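A student in our group prepared the protein record below, which I am reviewing. Thanks in advance; the entry in question is below.
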Amino acid sequence: MCQYIKRPGLIASLACLASVFNPTDIGNRFQTALALLLTLTAINYATSDALPTLPYLTRLDKYHDMCHNLVFVIIAQNVVFYAWCQLTMQCTGEEVC
């Protein structure tokens, strides 16, 4: 059971590493976050095959949903920060990011 809790949490927290790349390098940021999102989805499918099917959401289902939501928020943050950097560079004419 521990593998269904620790792995998704670790992988979702690794999505924060997308912030290490330069804000104007949106390709590498997306590549990192989307690869982790696909990994989370694969773990979710493996978990659903190994556990019994229930007609309601369990705590584990909600936990996996929150891990996915964290990655989606990081992707949205990358888009907003990229747009802010592009707008700032257009307004000031100098590279801020």
User: Anything to note?
Assistant: The chain has a mean pLDDT of 88. The CA atoms of residues 15 and 33 lie 5 Å apart.
